[in-house]
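B., you asked whether I could sanity-check this one before it goes into the benchmark set. Here's the sequence:
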Amino acid sequence: MSSGNERGVQPLCNLERLARVMHERGLDGLVLTQPYDVYYMSGFNATAHKGDEPRPYAFVISRAALREPVLIVADYYLGNFLTAPIWVQDIRPFRAVMMPLDVPPTRQDIDRFIPATGKGVGWVERARANFAFDMKSCVLGAIRDLGLDGKRIGFDDLGYGMRLGLPASVLADAYDCMMDTRAIKTAGEIERLKAATALNEGAIRSAIARWDPKMSWADFTRLYDESVLALGGFVRDPGGMVWGHPSGSDAAITLQIGREQELVSSGTHVMFDCHGTLDLYCWDGGKTWVAGADPTSEGARNAKATAVVAETMLAAMRPGARISELQRLARETYRKAGHPDADSTVTFFHGLGLSHMDVPIERADGRSNADWVLEQDMVVPMHLLCPGGQRDRWWLEEVVHVSAQGGRPLFSWGFDAL
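And here's what the prediction gave me:
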């Protein structure tokens, strides 16, 4: 098979990083069936597939031939690639749920799924020649053809590897391998994250512009969700706004469930922490808006201190910075900035990309990666919270692109209150 890309599509994934991570983790190949990993590696985003159904696709790759992977798909997906091309040249379909069980399978079954525009196209003809009657034989055939028989293969769903009947000695868990790879963003991914962040910023501003003091939190969440959809993004049930907002002086840290009926009354400190996706890439974050009023003196103090901490964090978010060190620096900066109880403040970080993780749980040597280290071209949300009551709590979450010059914010609106 030619290693060239006859459709001129470049991979979104970080193949150079993948080669290094696979080597460090002792993996000769990968079989990926989780939707985000398959999309990340191939560019294929399966329509009509739901979360807990058996995966009707798999991506198989060898460390020895990273530019020659195999994508295995249900027969009904094959025609998609004529209008949504991907960089993978070896696409192998298998007979799936639409074909009847009461008649014998035939080699011609795949022709039902090939549009007229696909006849005679090189990759389509190769796919037709590789048509299999079931997914298992298709995956095992790809493993064999890539020279991975008897080699150590990582699975992002280890249970699927076991169901293939492979010897336990060749099976490995590839979850951390993929998270380690996805941690470092390619230029294309960073552009998608910038676009997703800009959409979130626009949706927050739109929701604020339509606020009414008679709205409940559930109403306000729906308002934000509607703004997202109008801008072309998506949120998942129960909604895109994350923080719970206890009323009165309650300073508990809670998440909302999307059905809160308390009012977003004038003077309430609304902490926008919003989640959703654009082209499968996540957005996160926001900051504080005082509904229809100015901050109280305590709120203004917390806002000023949080802005100072944010600027300090950006300067410190360079390759090599460790999470615990950043948290210690944030607490010290809150104290110096005049916060009366710096130990009560909360500062935390995570990765961002196709998920709100994108950081491995364990390092290649098996040690915990809880206290992880920033690397060049990570995208890392920075969360700063001053817990408090309804009229003095303060929140800021900036999405940060890590670089040697310091953290680059993806939001355009700075650190002042909305």
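One thing to flag: The longest helix spans residues 187-209. Otherwise nothing jumped out at me.
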